Amino acid sequence: MPAETGSRILRLKTVLDRTGLSRSTLYRKIDRGTFPKQVRISERCIGWRESDLEKWLRNPMYYSRFDTQRDPPPGASTETS
């Protein structure tokens, strides 16, 4: 059964092919919060959620992963009272 569109995990080569970014630019954008953060698949394997990549592709200039509910802005408390 094929995975639903958007629920797949994409590997680095696929992400680079779809975005046209270089590897160093991709990681620099992740550090700045202007590209979706990768997810750990296993101990030595990472990927990106296809839905997060599609969201970035729709509006890369104004994307901020801190606007999504997954990652709080730096310095924000993640504890709830």
Structure description:
The protein has 81 residues and is α+β, with helices and mostly antiparallel strands. It has one domain (9-67). The chain has three helices and three strands. Strand 2 and strand 3 form a beta hairpin. The protein is globular. The N and C termini lie far apart (42 Å). The model has no long low-confidence stretch (mean pLDDT 84).
| Number of helical elements | 3
What share of residues are in beta strands?
5-15%
Count of domain modules? 1
**Would you tell me the structural class of the helices and strands?**
alpha+beta
Largest sheet: 3 strands, antiparallel
Order of helices and strands: EHHEEH
Question: What is the first-to-last residue Cα distance?
Answer: 42 Å
Total strand count, please? 3
Radius of gyration: 13 Å
Strands side by side in the biggest sheet: 1-3-2
Shape: globular
Can you give the helix content as a percent range? 25-40%
Mean pLDDT: 84
Low-confidence stretches: none
Write the layout of secondary structure elements.
Elements: E1 9-10, H1 12-19, H2 23-32, E2 39-42, E3 45-49, H3 50-58
Antiparallel strand pairs: 1-3, 2-3
List keywords for this structure.
single chain; 81 residues; alpha+beta; 3 helices; 33% helix; 14% strand
Summarize the structure.
The chain is of the alpha+beta class.
